UniProtKB/TrEMBL annotation:
SUPFAM superfamilies, per the entry: Neurotransmitter-gated ion-channel transmembrane pore
Protein name: Transmembrane ion channel
Gene source species: Pristionchus entomophagus
Keywords: Membrane, Transmembrane, Transmembrane helix
GO cellular component, one term: membrane
Chain segments annotated as transmembrane: 77-100, 107-129, 141-162, 193-211
InterPro entries, A to Z: Neur_channel (IPR006201), Neuro-gated_channel_TM_sf (IPR036719), Neuro_actylchol_rec (IPR038050)
Gene Ontology MF: a single term: monoatomic ion channel activity
Length: 212
């Protein structure tokens, strides 16, 4: 089950059986330090050992079976500080650069930021595709990166459409100055407020994506 990757837990069931001997010696390792039981990728959070002894009357033999129920939790430090936090900061910086750029070439700036962000996030997707098992559902980290890509793409597309509509409205402003829609699109104050509102919506989407 990898739906919650990299915050998932895995259940491992092991069975050891031994026939023929009348005595089986088990060593209890519960007093060992926890760091000796864990590895760099997995942390041992539960270990249940159950012993069963069965005696076959006809053969005169005893069957010993040891059942191990191990619970492993994935160490999420690597994924949090190498994937989640860097991609979130990168998307945040990209959105700030796209929405608060005050130059005349807003269209070129938004398109450049969008392409750069897409290229960088695709490198993250490549890392995830090599590290994760192929399945019919995306894990939690995969959905996280996918939503980031969607948020940045939609933000850039809206900015391009907004700048395009404003450029068209400027061409008609000299012919029809009394048109309310044209005056609304050409207003610098409305344009800035709209960009700031869209920026807040994009940041909210990234925040909800991180929390959920």
């Amino acid at each position: 089950q990898f739906d919650a990757f990299p915050f998932d837990q895995q259940q491992c069931l092991l069975c050891f059986a031994h026939d023929g001997l009348g005595e089986v010696k088990l060593i209890d390792a519960s007093e060992l330090p926890l760091d000796l039981k864990s590895i760099s990728e997995w942390d041992l959070v539960g270990n249940t050992t159950h012993e069963e002894v069965r005696e076959e009357m006809q053969a005169g033999k005893q069957t010993h079976r040891v059942l191990l129920h191990i619970t492993l939790a994935r160490c999420d430090f690597f994924w949090a500080f190498l994937i989640i936090i860097p991609t979130l900061l990168f998307c945040l910086i990209s959105l700030i650069g796209a929405f608060f750029y005050a130059g005349e070439d807003n269209v070129m700036n938004a398109a450049s930021i969008g392409l750069t962000t897409m290229t960088s996030l695709m490198l993250v997707v490549t890392i995830l595709s090599d590290a994760l098992d192929k399945s019919d559902n995306l894990p939690g980290l995969g959905w996280f990166v996918f939503v980031e890509i969607v948020v940045v793409c939609i933000s850039v597309i809206i900015l391009l459409l907004l700048d395009g509509a404003r450029s068209v409205a400027r061409g008609y402003s000299k012919k029809d100055k009394d048109n309310f829609l044209i005056r609304l699109l050409t207003s610098k104050r409305v344009f800035r407020v709209t960009r700031f509102t869209l920026f807040l919506l994009a940041i909210t989407a990234l925040g909800l994506n991180t929390i959920l």
